[in-house]
TetR/AcrR family transcriptional regulator
Amino acid sequence: MPTGRNQRADATRNRELLLAAAEEEFTEKGLDASVADIARRAGVAKGTIFRHFATKEDLIAAIVSGHFAALIAIAERLLTASDPGAALLQLLTETADNIRQNDLLFLQSITGNDSRVLALRDELHATITALVTKAQEAKAIRPDLTGTDVFALMCTPVHAVDFLPNPSPDSWKRYLAIIFDGFRPEGATALPVAAPDWG
Amino acid sequence: MPTGRNQRADATRNRELLLAAAEEEFTEKGLDASVADIARRAGVAKGTIFRHFATKEDLIAAIVSGHFAALIAIAERLLTASDPGAALLQLLTETADNIRQNDLLFLQSITGNDSRVLALRDELHATITALVTKAQEAKAIRPDLTGTDVFALMCTPVHAVDFLPNPSPDSWKRYLAIIFDGFRPEGATALPVAAPDWG
Amino acid sequence: MPTGRNQRADATRNRELLLAAAEEEFTEKGLDASVADIARRAGVAKGTIFRHFATKEDLIAAIVSGHFAALIAIAERLLTASDPGAALLQLLTETADNIRQNDLLFLQSITGNDSRVLALRDELHATITALVTKAQEAKAIRPDLTGTDVFALMCTPVHAVDFLPNPSPDSWKRYLAIIFDGFRPEGATALPVAAPDWG
Amino acid sequence: MPTGRNQRADATRNRELLLAAAEEEFTEKGLDASVADIARRAGVAKGTIFRHFATKEDLIAAIVSGHFAALIAIAERLLTASDPGAALLQLLTETADNIRQNDLLFLQSITGNDSRVLALRDELHATITALVTKAQEAKAIRPDLTGTDVFALMCTPVHAVDFLPNPSPDSWKRYLAIIFDGFRPEGATALPVAAPDWG
DNA sequence: AATGAATGAGGATTCATTCAT
DNA sequence: AATGAATGAATCCTCATTCAT
């Protein structure tokens, strides 16, 4: 016996289906994935997509927001870890793993105006910065590194894999290890340019 | 009255104009830059573009080929340098600098079928591998690194900058330095996964 | 707990709310006013509108019917006035005033098939014809004018205002006066074409 | 042997075909006539319409402009007539005749921002005002009438016909005669409202 | 070889209407 | 009776590509 609650449950399910379908389509076809294809993949009518997301851009913002939120959760959890250096490496590992399945990095380019996305991005940046500071106090990473640097480099291991002819699903771990080795405090080269501002 | 020779000269010039205009447009607007805008920027008619490049994809392949060729030239020149470690760093620096001006990375996604582009990419990969080997023989970089690894990581300094809210034009130098620090042989962490195959 | 009676009362109220909201929306946005906006303005769900009016066209027909009914009431009241000429002018004045607030003229274009609207229109035409005849018997207006003529010209004062760059709300009175001056019997020009048939 | 000139001639012809088709479609279906239908009627592809008119609104502006230009030509020609009163009547006659075939009055509603249309409208208004002044100096029409009044009333004879169940193509002449009788100077009623401003 | 007009498939979005709850 | 989610046809417009000149 379906209640009003059930109806809402159906709509919620459609929303999830759409987000999932959109992620897959965007991953496969990039930003030009069509709303029609997303709807088809989700098994709903084209119009339904606009009930849930007023605009294609809104849909993208929702996806990006979801990922940022997930990354924030990861980072906050790691903030209480006992070994700050390991925690930072763990953050980068989980981040890359989260991103690896759906490389939505390019989606960010469109969400530059969405205040919700921007707020989440700032929050993630702040949490990462806190983690970086802790790791530096523990002398686990080089002292000239900033949270902004880590934020910028966070996705590069996954991205590096994209330039390979036959990307294997695990190679990002290799590139993360190399980059993290660049974070070591011992024998670090003096950096040629000052750290970029965040805001 | 233009002679056959002159006409050919004009056509060649148009080709160059179109390639230059296309690079600028793609840099500014990404893959969605329109053929019409490129033609307008080059100062030729829309139809002319298709006389030179059968397809928008062909045009992109031509651009990407040009950049690969430039990178190959750089790499080959550095092959004869006396300090192989410095040469490798120099390669990555010049590559990033070359890319920074016209980020054509996204263009690669489309050229996966173009045999000319693939051949050039293979050639670049081979030259980089030779440089890497020399640097390893000189013990300038860690021995577990492969040419494929360097190829994959080559663009990441530039890409990292794209994730910053206010990208400053020089920040890639900072990220290249950090990543290159990860190439140091001393105290390198054992890499968790094997190097990916190239072909 | 609403009883059957209460529910019916609610439904009636909803119908009125919808009609009022629809008039406002149509006035503001023309025929393209959306059913969704009307529902929102009325404070009911979109589905409810279709319980009351099977079709958007039906809703429009209901509005037009209401206005025709109002005009009929005005005309019938004036049928008993002592000065038939003044009564005719009064009819045109009240009509224009009624129309001015909600220009529903454009709505008529759609209701050409609705028998209820057509019947009301015929009734209004008949009443106007009676008023015209009385005015002619009193020699207040030119004898070659027909009820059909007056019906046709009835809305023109309001419409004339629409062609002005800055319409002022009272200008229709000016145009009604001018047109009504064309109704004067003295010195009337012979009309070049016969009066149109009504049905 | 077709030259560049011929090609241009073809394009010009398509432009005319499109304008004609658009007028017919708009006349039949109102502002909601679809671009696709217009293209089909003109016998060209949908895309062609946008080569000639960047926007549906632009197309409408072109139509309205054409009509305003025609009316201006009529008015200017009549400015030199010997009998100014007859000239004014003639203007209204030719205007109505011009408009009768394609009632594009409603199209004006959309062109409120198009400076070209606005300029033509102002020019027409000015010319009409000149004609009115001349007619008043000749005591052919009432002295309290303005060019703005005539502009506003210009289309009403045609519009009146639209409210008839079976509009006959000539009835507008009847309504023009009636309205023009309202312009007579003798026995004119004092107008209840001041003449509206133009700009 | 160059031009630019024409083509038509494809894209995002809107909206009247239907339907499950 | 009311709700609001889902539908899918229709709309304006864009753009790579073709073609007549």
Q: What stands out?
A: Residues 34-36, 46-47, 50, 55-56 of chain B lie near DNA strand F (CB under 10 Å from a C1'). The radius of gyration of chain B is 19 Å.
